[in-house]
Design a protein that fits this description.
Blueprint: E1 4-8, H1 12-24, E2 28-32, H2 35-44, E3 49-53, H3 61-69, E4 76-80, H4 85-93, E5 98-101, H5 106-129, E6 131-134, E7 137-140, E8 145-148, E9 151-153, H6 157-168, H7 176-184, H8 193-206, E10 216-219, E11 223-226
Parallel strand pairs: 1-2, 1-3, 3-4, 4-5
Antiparallel strand pairs: 6-7, 7-8, 8-9, 10-11
Length: about 230
């Protein structure tokens, strides 16, 4: 699926040139002539990158950038006819990913677009790989959060560590000694009950019926294991 780029500039010749060149490279493009139109299109459509002029009617590019950043991490390249350092600082401070001064070389614009989109794709891929999914449960390893059916589940640090260990080793049975070593690093050496307490609390938070768990099971006389099989 081709990447879609929003070009925001009130100079028709610049917009026409950018649209032609980018579409020749296989991108889809759309355009807006002022800040209000840009924000409206951003809210109603999906884009992969925005080329955003600083000097815009109605709402200037700096404010557009700032308002978009409140809702999205979409890559933004600022365009301006000015060359003052202050404009660059302001643009980057409010969340721009790159900055180009007019008149610019269209080949350089395309090169920067390609570089930023490639970097964004890599970040998105890495982020996606850092989210574990088990049925309707999502375990985000980046921010150490858990959601079940879209609802946030508040786990303690040790509870999250336990869940992450179990999910990464589905089906493997861990003795309480194994869990003490892996999670507590023997901070509670000899006190096996702390494992049982944390398992019980974790079940209460992630299981529909903790008395009949679907995920964290007990192998009597051996330890605990995780499965997502019915």
């Amino acid at each position: 699926m081709p990447r879609k780029i929003l070009i925001v500039d009130d100079e028709p010749l610049i917009v026409k040139g950018l649209k032609y060149s980018l579409e020749q490279d296989g991108y889809e493009t759309d355009s807006a002539q002022d800040g209000e139109e840009a924000l409206a299109k951003f809210s109603s459509e999906q884009f992969d990158l925005i080329l955003l002029d600083v000097m815009l009617p109605k709402v200037d590019g700096i404010e557009v950038c700032q308002r978009i950043r409140e809702k999205s991490n979409i890559p933004i390249i600022m365009l301006t006819a000015k060359g003052e350092d202050m404009d660059k600082i302001l643009g980057l401070e409010y969340g721009a990913d790159d900055y180009m001064t007019k008149p610019f070389n269209i080949l350089e614009v395309k090169a920067r677009v390609k570089t930023i989109l490639r970097r964004t794709s890599m970040v998105q891929k890495e982020t996606a790989q850092r989210v574990l999914a088990v049925r309707d449960m999502q375990i985000n390893l980046n921010n150490r959060s858990v959601k079940i059916a879209g609802k946030e589940v508040n786990l303690t640090a040790k509870e999250f560590d336990l869940l992450q260990l179990f999910v990464a080793n589905r089906g493997k049975v861990f003795s309480r000694e194994n869990l003490l070593e892996a999670i507590w690093k023997y901070d509670y050496l000899g006190d096996l009950r702390t494992v049982d307490v944390h398992i019980r609390r974790l079940r209460e938070k992630i299981e529909k019926n903790p008395a009949q768990p679907e995920f964290i099971h007990t192998k009597w006389g051996v330890g605990y294991y995780f499965t997502d099989k019915d």
